[in-house]
Amino acid sequence: MSFALPAKDFPADLAEWRADHAPGFGQMPPAHASAGFASLVLRLRLALRRDGDTARLALLDQILDVAAESEQRLADQDQRIQALEQLSFTDELTSLPNRRGFEHHMQRELTRSRNERRGGVLGFLDLDGLKGINDSLGHAAGDAALRHAAQHLRQGIRAGDFAARLHGDEFAVVLPGSTETVARQQLAALCAGIDDEPLLWGGQRLKVGLSFGLVAYDGQHDLAELLRASDRAMYLHKQSRRARPVA
Fold first, then answer.
1. Can you name the residues that pair with 162 across neighbouring β-strands?
2. Longest dimension (CA), the chain
3. Which residues sit opposite 194 in a β-bridge?
4. CB 43: neighbour CB atoms within 10 A?
5. 212 membership: H or E segment, kind and range
6. Model confidence over 55-97: pLDDT tens digits?
7. CB 28 within 8 A of CB 44
C-alpha cells in the first residue's frame, strides 16, 4: 500500500510514504531527528485532513506514533549515558570531580591555554594528618575530614576555577588566568580558613589542615610533569608546617 500527499505541504523527501517502510523502534526518518519534528507532524496531519481520507490519516498517525516513541527512547538513552558519564567523573565520597574528571578537565584547559596563549596555575594539595585521624578515630572520621576539606575547597575557589580529589588525601585545583602570586594568596587564605574551622566529630574538635604546592602552566607543559612539579612544591610546604594535633 502506498499513498502520496501534496508536495507543497511538506519537504520533498517525504512527499511519498510507503506503509511497508514505516520506521521501526530505534529508527526514524532523518527529518524526525531535527527540532522541526513537531512542526512536520502538524503539517502532515493538516494536509491529510484537507485530503479527507481518514484511512490515510490513521495510518500516518501510527507511523508518527512509532517515530515519536523512537525519538523519545533515543532521548532517554542519551540522558542515561550522560548521567553515567557524570558518575564516572565524580568522586563518590566528596562529590568533587575524581582523578579521571580532573585529567579530562586539565587536558582541555591545557589545549585552551595553548590556543588562547594564556596561562594559569595548578595547585596540588594534601590533607595533613589523615592517617593519624584514621588510626585513632577510625575511617569514618577520616572520611568526614576529607569531606570537610572538599567543602572548603569548593567554597574557596573562584567561579571558573576547578577543584578535584585525585586520590586518598590528595586534591588539585586549577586556577585559569591566575598568577603564582595571586594563587598562593588564594590558597593560603583557603588553608587559613580550614585551620580556623575545626571539624566537629564525636564531641571533639579535629584540626584538619591542608598543605599545597603551586606550578604555573602555559599550555606547553605535559600534565604528568605539572603534577610532579606541584607535588614537589607541596611536599616542601608540608615540611615547613608544624605538625597539628588530632584534637
1. 174
2. 87
3. none
4. 16
5. strand 209-217
6. 777 777 777 777 777 777 777 666 666 655 555 789 999 999 9
7. no
> What 3-state DSSP class applies to 202?
coil
Q: How far is CA 16 from CA 4, 42, 197, in A?
A: 5, 16, 71
Residues forming a β-bridge with 180: none
What H or E segment, with its residue span, contains residue 167?
Answer: strand 162-167
Amino acid at 20: D
Q: Which of 26, 25, 7, 27 is nearest to 17 (CA)?
A: 7
Top-level class of domain 99-240: alpha beta
Region of poorest pLDDT, from 38-42, 128-132, 145-149, 203-207: 38-42
Q: Domains of the chain: which residue ranges?
A: 2-88, 99-240
Q: Cα-flanking dihedrals φ and ψ of residue 228, to 5°?
A: -65, -45
**Which cell numbers hold the place of 220?**
606547553
Give 6: exposed, middle or buried? Use CB within 10 Å, 0-12, 13-18, 19+. exposed
Catalytic residue list? 169
Cα separation of 71 and 27, whole Å? 8
Written as one string, the DSSP assignment of 169-195 is TEEEEEEET--HHHHHHHHHHHHHHHH
Q: 82-109 burial, b if ≥16 CB within 10 A, otherwise e?
A: eeeeeeebbbeebebbbeebbbbbbeeb
Query: In the structure grid, which three cell numbers stand for residue 235, read together?
Result: 611536599
Report the distance separating Cα 203 and Cα 132, nearest Å: 17
